[in-house]
Structure formats: C-alpha cells, structure tokens
Amino acid sequence: MSNIRFEQIEGKSLGFYALIAGLGILILAALGSVYYMEHYGHFVTGMNNRIVWGMPHVFALFLIVAASGALNVASISSVFNKKLYKPLSRLSGLVALSLLAGGLMVLVLDLGRPDRLIVAMTEYNFKSIFAWNIILYNGFFVVVAVYLWMMFERRMNRFSRKAGLVAFAWRLILTTGTGSIFGFLVAKQAYDAVIMAPMFIIMSFAFGLAFFILILMASYQWTNRPLGNVVINRLSNLLGVFIAVVMYFVAVYHLGNLYLAENTGVENFILFDGGIYTKLFWYGQIILGGFIPMALIYHPATKGNRSMLGLASVLIIIGGLIQLYVIIIGGQAYPMELFPGKEILEGYGGVAQYSASLPEISLGIGGVALAIIAVTFLVKFLAFLPESLADDVANPHHKG
Amino acid sequence: MSKTLNRRDFIKTTSATTIGVATVASGITLTTFADTNKTPVTNEKRWGMLIDTNKLSEVDIDGMVSACQKEQGWGSEVHSTGSQKPGWIKKLKVKDKATGRISNLALMCQHCEEPPCVDVCPTNASMKREDGIVLVDKHLCIGCRYCMMACPYDARSFVHETLSNQKEHMPRGKGTVESCTMCVHKVDKGGIPACVASANSDAVIFGDLYDASSKINQTLKTVQSAQIRADLNLNTGVRYSGL
User: Fold this and answer.
1) CA dihedral of A280, A286, A289, A294, whole degrees rounded to 10
2) Which of A365, B82, B121, B193 is 20 to 30 Å from A296 at the Cα level?
3) What's the confidence (pLDDT) of residue A148?
4) Which residue from A48, A186, A347 is facing B84, i.e. has the nearest CB?
C-alpha cells in the first residue's frame, strides 16, 4: 500500500472545460429557476397545499441520502480496516461532501423564505427531527472535513481511523434522521413507520456507492489513469448486495403495511391502483432501479463489464430518484384518513394532483450539477485521486 | 499628569460602556413590549369550540367560511390555483359508509393540546399559546412546510403569491404557512371568532373548556362529542357532536 501516490488531475483539457461549462449552465438554470419561483411565488410550481414537498425535495433528499452513502467506501477502509478501499477514501469523503452540498442547496432554495436561512441556524426546536437534521448536516461537513484532513496530512494519518469511526457513526445517525423525517409523521398513512430509518440507511449505501462508482470510473477514464478490475469488481459486488438489501427493506415495509388494516388503502394505492405512482413503483423503482441493475451486476453475460456496471449505477440512481418520488409525492397524494368508516364526499379527499414544473426540475438537476462540479474542481486542486489503481497497486497480493 | 489611553484601557472602557448600554436598552425594550400585553396569556384557560353537525346547515358552514375570509383577508389570491389557494376553514360533507347518513361540518385547525405541527417545526415558528391556541409566527417561519406534512387535519396553507390589501391584525406573507388563529385578535379582547359569530349560537359554541360555568364546558358534559382522529391522542380544542 505504500506505493499509492495521490495526484491532482491536470484539468486543462477541452473536455474538462466543457464539463465545467455544461455543469455551470445547469447551475445557472437552477438559480434562475429559484429567482423565478421566489419572485412570483410558489404558484408557478406544481406544488399546492396537499403536495407541499415536490420535485426539489425528491432531489434534495436523494442527494443527502446518497451523500451519506458515498462515505461508506472510506468507512469500510477506516472502520473495518479493509486495505483495498484505502486509496479510495479521499475521493469517498469528497463525493460525500459534494453530494451533501448539492442536496442542501436544493433544500434551502426550495424554502418559502430562503432569505431566512439565518433563522433556521439560530432558532432550534429540539423536538423537531428537522432541526436535528440541520445540525447533523452541518456537523457532517465538519466531521468529514476533519476526516479528510487526517487523511491528507501525513502527521495526522494516525488519527484517520478514529476520525473515520466518528464519521461513520455520524453518517448513520444522519441518515436515521433523514428517514425519521417521514418515520415520525403520524398523520399520513404512507409514513409513520420506524422502518423508514433503516430503509433510508440502506438506500444511502446503494445510491451513494452508485454515484461513487460513476465518478471513479469517469475520472479514471477521462484522465487516462489505470483502474484495475480488482477494485471495480469489489465495488460492483458491494453495489449488488446493497441494491438487493434495499429491495428486501422495500418488501418488508410494504408487506408490514399491508398487514395493518389501517394502511391497506395506501398500500393498494401504491402497489395496485395508484395510476402513475403504481407504474413508477413497479416499472421505475423495482424493475428499472432494482432487478435490471442486479441482473447487470450478477448475470454472467454482463458481469465484470464496466459499461454494464456504469449502466447499472445510472439505473440505480434513476431508480432511487423514482423511489423517493413514490415515497414523498405518492405518500402525500394519498388522502389522510380523517373519518374512519366514513367517506368524504366534498371538501377533502381524493388523490391530490401534482405535476412537477420545469423550474422545480431545473432546481433539482442544479443540485446534482453542483455536486459534480465540486468534485471536478476539487480533484484538480487537491490530491484526491491515486495516480494509479491498477490491480498490482491496489492489491499487491493480486496475481496476474 | 496626563495619562495616555493604552489599548487595554480603551477596550475595557468601551466594553463596559457597550455592555451597560446594551443591558439598559434591552431592559427598556423588554419592558416596553411587556407593557403592551397587560394580561399575559395563561394556561388557566383553554379555548375551544364545539360544532354540532346536526344543527349546522350547509348555508351556515358557507357563512362560517366567508366570515373567516372576510375577517382574516384570505381567499382573494389571484394567481394561485384552486389547490394552491389558502383554506383556513373548509366545508366538508361526510357520508357514513354503513348507514349512508350524511353530515356537514366545518374543518379548521383543531388547536391540539399536543400539536404535531409544533413538534416538527424546526424554528419554533409553529407554536401553541398557553391558552391552547396554535399559531404561526410569521417572522420565524422559513416556509419549510414540514408542519403541513405533519398536520393530520390538512388545516394549514402555504401562501403561494404576493399579497395585497392585508388586514392590519393579520399580517400574512408570501412563502410562509398560515392557518386558523381562532381569531386570537378578537378573543384577546373578549370577543369570539368570526366563524362562531356568523353561525347560530347553538350550532357552534366557543368558550373556555376549563371554566365549569362556560356554555361549552356544560354542553360538553351533557352531549356526546368526538374529536377528529381521536386515536392520535392530540386532545383537540375543537370538538364535534352529531358525527
């Protein structure tokens, strides 16, 4: 492992500047959308008084969840002392911070009063999971930044394992908090389930790793650095396991809900007769984001093929966004049970309508672009990437 | 003998002066604000409302909704779509699945004793007064809408556009959340909420739930009443009979 050398990327090619320019345009479009939404008011969005969290929340929570998961690679190295992952630790921390920054940007700019951010930072209601999350998100920046410093600074290297442990614990608590945003909502039938917290944790493992793999493969491909099969195959296997566990948790969540009579209505809605939500659940979340990536990762015909692993990662990201759409929007669309045993004829009820507006989608994509641009810039200015991850470097015991 | 002012002395003097001025000034400010509310709200009262669905006609409920709109100034938003417009109070028609009996009722913020909106609000903008009235502090609300997610009664609205011609007693703001205030501005002066005033006095009773001599307390002792989503144990201030 001593022969791992970290080096910045050159970042002078046309491709590099084209990437920065492309991402910059997406970020500008997002900021323009925010100006438009704030200037006119949220009536220009697709949200209403029933669907109060729309597309920006889907992206924001996806990125925040993925951020926590992206740190896993570093955690496996530090906490579980797996040497193979050590060269990947710096990039893992960087991707985690960048995704969180992107997610928080979307979350904050979707507020009705983003100008009152200072209020959110100075007025805390400690009974609110949301307030705890604000502390957890900000703390994550500090904890991971310190962790990165321990990894970068040779004199501090001996503390990196301890910092890694703290970061690992922090990210678990953070995702527990994110899942609990829904898990503690007693009002809505789709939420109010303690399983939300562990489900979000395992979702974070899968989404974060998918992002990490894509960024790793792209950065090595575009900078012509060697990236061996040992690392890639290991990450690929891990991704397969994570996505299988996500599907297991989804199954337990829905079966558990079906068992409780009070939730059969919302379960039927999501699983069978919810129109777009049912289609998104089965075709988007389960097939596109679950079964197909698993097949691509494990089927002998595609196993070990990097393009297929890249495709699987992209599908997991798309499937993850769809999963959060079904959870967040679908959960709000289904009416709350106000009068058990009674049918509401007028005034409330029915499935709430929502169609995401362009500014909302643009804001969400802007968050992803911010995350990627942060990674792109920082790998140019700091030595995050090992100059080689060839098999004999990544794993000296690798034969041949 | 002249003494030159060194840096330490300068910091000492200016700090002491600043602290002194700040203390006195904040004291004056606090006193000034405290003076404006001569009778602080206490938990000796619990304001509540009893809605008798048997006595309430559809016309009564329409009257309650428009009285609320007129009093608080909501509902004239020009850009918001139907589902984006605020609805501080709604007219609901409910049918019993078994018997087919239809009831009409007005649904607004239920002013819970344990309000989920207050629990989840990150900035304490959602708050409950000592007398049980649940409000939104428009200066603290950041528009995160988590309270709307948490409310089991769909009682809260988000202001989707810039407003004009607002009522002096009810400042509302684009990008913040709002809901029924139980006409706190009137109640604090000994009045009753506008919706209650508009309905006939038997159909909607307003008063102090704790006061044994109040009409609401006495009626609740004698009639069967219900809380909506009583299973959530929120102990709502708004009760319904005939449901």
Assistant:
1) -160
2) A365
3) 95
4) A48
Q: Any residues with CB less than 8 A from the CB of B85 and at least 6 apart, and which?
A: A49, B75, B77, B157, B160
Q: Which residues of A touch B83 (CB under 8 A)?
A: 48-50, 352-353
Q: Of how many residues is chain B composed?
A: 243
**Nearest chain B residue to A117, by CA:** B142
Helix (H) or strand (E) holding A375: helix A358-381
* Helix orientation angle between A160-183 and A89-109, rounded to the nearest 10 degrees: 30
CB contact under 8 A, A187 and B141: no
Using the predicted structure, report yes or no on whether residue A398 has a pLDDT greater than 70.
Answer: no
Would you say residue A273 has pLDDT above 50? yes
In tens, the pLDDT along A38-64 reads 999 999 999 999 999 999 999 999 999
Select the residue of B123, B153, B154 nearest A119 (Cβ to Cβ).
Answer: B123
Rg of chain A on CA atoms, in Å:
21
Instruction: Tell me the two tokens of residue A313.
Output: 């990662």
What DSSP line would sit under A272-328, residue for residue? II-THHHHIIIIIIIIIIIIHHHHHHHSTTTTT-HHHHHHHHHHHHHHHHHHHHIII
| Residue whose pair of structure tokens reads 């709502």 in the numeric block | B236
Chain A stretch 111-170, residues whose beta carbon is closer than 8 A to a beta carbon of chain B: 111-114, 116-117, 119-120, 123-125, 127-131, 134
Identify the band that residue A246 occupies on the pLDDT scale cut at 50, 70 and 90. very high
Which chain A residue has the Cα nearest residue B120? A128
Tokens of A196: 């939300």
User: Under DSSP, is residue B233 helix (H, G, I), strand (E, B) or coil?
Assistant: coil
Cross-chain residue pair A345–B140, CB shorter than 8 Å: no
Among B86, B124, B160, the residue with its CB nearest the CB of A125 is B124
The CA distance from B119 to B138, in Å, is 17
Residues 46-75 of chain A with CB under 8 A from chain B are: 47-50, 52-53
Is the CB of residue B53 less than 8 Å from the CB of residue B241?
yes
Q: Exposure string (b/e) for B179-188, b if CB count within 10 Å is 16 or more? A: bbbbbbbbbe
- What is this model's ipTM? 0.94
Nearest CA in chain B to A354: B83
Place of tokens 């009722």: B105
What is the pLDDT tens value at each position of chain B, 243 positions in all? 445 556 666 566 666 666 665 555 554 444 444 444 567 889 999 999 999 999 999 999 999 999 999 999 999 999 999 999 999 999 999 999 999 999 999 999 999 999 999 999 999 999 999 999 999 999 999 999 999 999 999 999 999 999 988 999 999 999 999 999 999 999 999 999 999 999 977 899 999 999 999 999 999 999 999 999 999 999 999 999 998
DSSP state of A269: I
Residue B31 CA to residue A277 CA, distance in Å, equals 56
